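Morning!

This is the sequence you dropped in the shared folder:
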Amino acid sequence: MAGIVAAVDDLFFGAKLRETARGLGVPLVLVSSSQEVAAAVRERRPALLIVDLQSDAGRPLETIRAIKADPDLRGTPVLGYFSHVRDDLKAAAAEAGCDELLPRSAFSARLPEILRRGAPATDTGCAAGAPPGA
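The structure's back. Tokens below.
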């Protein structure tokens, strides 16, 4: 698995995600509807699905439930971010199956680290079990 699918309908935050991912060389697909999320996850098998839990258009809780209910997709790690004042949303997302939950401020602060999870695997040129330089 490589790359990241992000269910984000905030244009400014989407641009921030895209710019950061591009700088890190991480493949990123931005989607906004729940149908697009399922299709992108099924097609790309991402290392991580990022969900804006306060999305107006994306129906994030339904989307997470659908991903986690699908036997082919349930192994996809889901990270949801939310406003720090929305403890109700945090609890609902955890119940829906979200694997990791972060306040938006923490998500923004850790964005490069989070996006690196989707970096393509690099070939070190070493045979399995052989030490470097062998």
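Headline: The helical segments are 11-24, 34-44, 60-69, 87-96, 104-109, 111-115.

More detail when I'm at my desk.
O.
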